[in-house]
Write a structure and sequence with these properties.
Helix 3 packs parallel to helix 4. It contains five helices and five strands; from the N terminus they run βααβαβαββα. Strand 3, helix 4 and strand 4 form a beta-alpha-beta unit. The chain is α/β, with parallel strands linked by helices. Helix content is about 30%, strand content about 15%. The chain has a five-stranded parallel β-sheet, sandwiched between helices. The structure holds 1,3,4-trihydroxy-5-OXO-cyclohexanecarboxylic acid. 1,3,4-trihydroxy-5-OXO-cyclohexanecarboxylic acid binds next to loops.
Length: about 140
């Protein structure tokens, strides 16, 4: 049974193909493998979930509130900047939720400077690339 849930939102399934100058050339599966390798000597048991749909992220967070995870790591993708619904769903959880971004959103376009879902999270990591995921998990073990 997994003890940490990792949620990736829209367009993160396109890593490796999308804007490599911003996100690098690794795929989401490469990021998953890197994360699992970094955590192999820890008690972390990860469950990975990706969807492009806002409501499915809300559904997954609501379900997580009924499960026994120690923490949730979430990269909401573009919804980080817009989604009141995901913000509100994060607030339902009684466990730490950490928002991660591969890129350094504060060094990018103005519309990325509003971090709406992050306001509901315990912490946020931005700009550490593929290392954000395992570092976020490690902080919760
Ligand atoms: C992202 C940053 C967001 O602004 C963007 O919409 C993404 C990826 C990141 O991981 O850097 O899809 O969340």
């Amino acid at each position: 049974m997994a003890n940490i849930l990792i949620i990736n939102g829209p367009n993160l399934n396109m890593l490796g193909k999308r804007e490599p100058e911003v996100y690098g050339t690794l795929t989401l599966d490469d990021v998953r493998q890197h994360t699992e390798l970094k955590l192999k000597d820890t008690p972390a048991k990860l469950e990975w979930y990706q969807t492009n749909l806002e409501g499915e992220i809300v559904d997954r967070l609501q379900k997580a509130a009924t499960q026994n995870y120690k923490a949730v790591i979430i990269n909401p993708g573009g919804y980080a900047h817009t989604s009141v619904a995901i913000h509100d769903a994060i607030k339902i959880l009684q466990i730490p939720v950490i928002e991660v971004h591969l890129s350094h959103v504060y060094r990018r376009e103005g519309f990325r400077q509003t971090l709406l879902t992050a306001k509901a999270c315990m912490a946020i990591m931005t700009g550490l690339g593929k290392d954000a995921y395992w570092l976020a998990v490690k902080s919760q073990l």
